[in-house]
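Customer escalation, tier 2.

The customer says the design service returned an amino acid string that "doesn't look like it belongs to this structure." They asked us to rerun it and document both sides in this ticket. The original structure tokens are below, unchanged.
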């Protein structure tokens, strides 16, 4: 069976353009957070145009084979690099875009002054291979963001680079601008369609996973304070209670409520009230331990789950949060606010199998703190104990 090189190149060009259009369609449909798919798709289309120009070189006018084809191939590689960099949020795209434009210009000018030559084919192969390596490096630098498909895309880029180097070596050795399909270097013809299709699959998977993470975060985090919302706090609390029960370690629940919050809203406005909520969330996060979890469960109410935390330590942490917030909220934008917080503390007992009863006991202690004059910490009753005045603590 005889495989025609030109036909295979045309098929590879069509596959590259089709995969690029699919990526652009994905961007058109989803937009937010999918810009890398748009850029990579344009790179695939540029690559497909370049490959088609090379395939029709014997029939096409010189500007197509000598200018358009190498320039399109170079642009495709540059766009892949730009897309890989764009996956890391906040990356400045101006540098890669300027370099890409300069590369395309240089290749076009050089090609326009030359006849069909081995030198330009080798140069373009090495140039696109270099852009592949730059893209792989950009993806590797962002590996802390563990997206499915990242390592697969890096592997494809490296394989594509190796194939381009092999093409450059064979072209420079044989002097042939097109390599036979059958032979020691014949497999390189199959890497281009595998690369364009595989890269589309991996990149779309990456941008979709990132979008899903963003939506999940929006569903689980309170927009105003940027901490867990009620659903996420309950979910994490259930996990921690089960884990600490299995380890036979204590769990403490802290219930917080900002004192006289309605008065703050009515006197200073809702913007100041929102600022107090954000201030409390930030203060609490700084005062809690890294293993602790805090969430806003509604209005001015917050709950923190403290794993592996005994009664004495929980009371100390609660008072530390209370004092730090009272100090931070004394003034806001030159106005004396004097916001404070009351805290109820509950400890897990042997009969607790869920976080709900713990939060209920902490909430009961919180109401006792309000009744005791606010701006204090109250340790909640255990199910088998009665209330004691010594459970009310106000230090400083």
């Amino acid at each position: 069976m005889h495989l025609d090189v030109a036909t295979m190149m045309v098929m590879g060009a069509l596959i590259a353009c089709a995969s690029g259009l699919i990526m652009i369609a994905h961007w058109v449909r989803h937009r937010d957070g999918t810009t890398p798919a748009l850029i990579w798709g344009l790179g695939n289309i540029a690559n497909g145009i370049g490959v088609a120009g090379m395939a029709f070189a014997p029939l096409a006018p010189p500007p197509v084979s000598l200018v358009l084809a190498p320039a399109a191939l170079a642009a495709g590689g540059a766009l892949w690099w730009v897309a890989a960099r764009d996956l890391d949020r906040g990356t400045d795209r101006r540098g890669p875009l300027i370099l890409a434009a300069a590369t395309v210009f240089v290749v076009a000018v050089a090609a326009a002054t030359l006849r069909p030559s081995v030198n330009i084919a080798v140069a373009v192969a090495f140039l696109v291979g270099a852009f592949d390596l730059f893209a792989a490096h950009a993806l590797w630098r962002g590996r802390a963001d563990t997206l499915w498909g990242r390592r697969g895309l890096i592997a494809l880029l490296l394989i594509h680079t190796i194939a381009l180097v092999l093409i450059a070596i064979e072209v420079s050795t044989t002097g042939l601008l097109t390599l036979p399909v059958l032979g020691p270097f014949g497999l390189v013809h199959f890497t281009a369609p595998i690369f364009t299709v595989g890269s589309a699959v991996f990149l779309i998977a990456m941008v979709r996973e990132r979008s899903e993470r963003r939506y999940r975060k929006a569903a689980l985090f309170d927009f105003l304070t940027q901490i867990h919302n009620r659903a996420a706090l309950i979910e994490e609390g259930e996990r921690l209670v089960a884990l600490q029960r299995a380890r036979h370690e204590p769990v403490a629940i802290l219930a917080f409520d900002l004192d006289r919050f309605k008065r703050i809203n009515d006197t200073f406005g809702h913007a100041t009230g929102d600022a107090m909520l954000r201030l409390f969330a930030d203060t609490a996060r700084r005062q809690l331990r890294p293993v602790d979890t805090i969430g806003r469960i509604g209005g001015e109410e917050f709950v923190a789950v403290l794993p592996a935390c005994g009664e004495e330590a929980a009371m100390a942490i609660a008072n530390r949060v209370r004092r730090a917030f009272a100090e931070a909220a004394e003034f806001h934008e030159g106005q004396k606010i004097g916001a404070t917080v009351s805290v109820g503390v509950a400890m897990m007992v042997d009969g607790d199998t869920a976080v709900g009863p713990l939060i209920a006991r902490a909430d009961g202690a919180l109401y006792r703190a309000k009744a005791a004059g606010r701006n204090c910490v109250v340790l909640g009753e255990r199910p088998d104990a009665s209330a004691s005045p010594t459970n009310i603590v106000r230090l400083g």
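Tier 2 assessment: The sequence is consistent with the input. The longest helix spans residues 188-220. Confidence is low (pLDDT under 50) at residues 385-390. Sent an explanation to the customer and offered a walkthrough call.
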